[in-house]
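Changelog-adjacent note: as of this version, every example in the card shows the full chain rather than a window. The one below runs 261 residues end to end.
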Amino acid sequence: MPTGATMKLPVDLTGRRVAISAAASGIGKVMADSFAACGARVFICDIDEAALAASGHHGVRADAGALADMEAFMDAALAHLGGLDVLVNNAGIAGPTAPIEAVKPEELDATLRIDLASFFHCARRAVPALRASGGGAIINLSSAAGRFGFPLRSPYAAAKWGVIGLTKTLAIELGPDNIRVNAILPGLVDGPRIRAVIRAKAQAAAISENEQTDRAVAATSLRCFVTQQDIANMALYLASPFGATISGQALAVDGDMQVLI
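Full-length structure tokens:
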């Protein structure tokens, strides 16, 4: 299948109950649409009320950086869906692009709250429902920054490495309950967020955006960006019977990235 293909996996997820955080736009929205297209019942949250209303999915407004909002999201999802089979922790922000001495403490706190703590809070609320369903899947969105160092992006990298640790620990803890826990590690996902990151890193390095883009793409064996649908396809696979014995894995969808620049 060509890199960046938009074909969804031919999986039947009819009736599966799926909660996805931050899913009114971007990767989350593509995942929500893809799960629904495969027959799943989907409930989402997002901080953007307008995007949430336009998403076509049931959901509630929630700030992933606020514990009370994440708990309310999970409570609403469980009430609406009548249980849970799949949790996708997708919430995330890019965080600052700066050397560590220039990173403000509040920027670090916000990045860790949204990119890591929100995953913990949603999983904590989801686990009893997954057990009651006889098992299921938790899918955490990490990043290539969860397996490489990422200069000028220390809060983001710290959070994404933390997601890997959380994933592997929960896989061991929850395996006896038939709950599979995996992480997806996107690389250069084409879209506004990576373009903003490239722009910021180009400014920091005093080079053009085109040169920074070329450097980033050259660090992948396939010399490519990946698409949001590529990430959604992996989530569908992990939630389906095809992924029935896959757990505790950090699965890169990144064109075989060798380094983050």
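Structural remarks: The longest helix spans residues 105-132.
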